[in-house]
Write a structure and sequence with these properties.
Layout lengths: L1 E2 L5 E4 L2 E5 L11 E4 L2 E6 L5 H7 L12 E5 L5 H9 L4 E6 L2 H12 L4 E5 L15 E6 L6 H12 E12 H4 L5 H13 L4 E8 L7 E8 L1
Parallel strand pairs: 6-7, 6-9, 7-8, 9-10
Antiparallel strand pairs: 1-2, 2-3, 3-5, 4-5, 10-12, 11-12
This protein binds S-adenosylmethionine.
């Protein structure tokens, strides 16, 4: 097992891993032991963040004690790896679907730094009282207005100098339009907000079709 350029992310025979913080397998991923420690395989086909790393993400803005707001956590696949990566921090996971939320609750039950919230991310004021400032806003919500949702949450929760990662799915925004054109419009819409600076974009093919990872700085 070898450390990658990203703290807490490891590689072995071409696969990515995170050091297991707690609990068992979350989504059927392999758990392997090495050097007296336990690691969970991070599936690049199941997680857009892992695919972004594989495809050349330059920075993973997560420290051991980071506070993360994760929008669209579903049943906790990627969120559980984020929880592995910041064992002394907290990962607040917002998910609107009651069914996914039930699974998320089970995953979070065994993880001391994961806090699930059953809410619609379009209305951040409804969970404002539960949250302080965040170091990272991570969003993976396949909705037409995903850029608006991201900006609304960033302005309410990101600290100055905080970071954001938005996983854009072009087909959720305009199914018939060329992905490049949709991505161009989303980036322009984000950058109209002067508090935000796009740092890097990473296409997620062939692991996630028509997806773009956008990494931003919140000034
Ligand atoms: C692509 S899935 C997320 C996958 C997950 N991020 C992962 O990598 O494990 C998108 C999720 O966003 C949720 N979602 C969609 N609209 C939402 C909203 N307005 N507020 C909160 N969650 C939403 C969906 O229910 C779904 O579970």
């Amino acid at each position: 097992m070898q450390q990658t350029a990203f703290r807490g992310v490891f590689t072995d025979r071409g696969s990515l891993f995170t050091r297991r913080l707690a609990g068992g397998s979350v989504y059927g991923e392999r758990i392997v032991s090495a050097g007296g420690e336990s690691f969970r395989e991070w599936d690049i086909r199941r997680s857009k963040l892992a695919a972004a790393i594989r495809n050349g993400l330059r920075e993973l803005p997560l420290d051991r004690d980071s506070s993360v707001l994760y929008l669209g956590a579903a049943s906790g696949t990627t969120a559980s790896h984020v929880s592995d990566l910041c064992p002394d921090g907290r990962v607040v996971c917002v998910e609107v679907s009651p069914r996914s939320f039930r699974d998320l609750l089970a995953v979070a039950g065994g993880r001391p730094n994961m806090f699930p919230v059953n809410a619609d991310a379009r209305h951040p004021e409804r969970y404002r009282a539960l949250l302080g400032e965040s170091d990272l806003l991570y969003q993976d919500i396949a909705q037409r207005d995903q850029d608006d949702i991201f900006l609304r949450n960033a302005s309410m929760f990101l600290r100055p100098g905080g970071r954001g990662m938005l996983m854009v799915k072009s087909r959720s925004i305009a199914v018939a339009e060329r992905p490049d054109e949709v991505f161009r419009r989303v980036l322009a819409s984000l950058e109209r907000d002067r508090r935000l600076k796009v740092i890097q974009t990473v296409r997620l093919e062939p692991f996630h079709r028509d997806h773009l990872a956008v990494s931003v700085l919140w000034k």
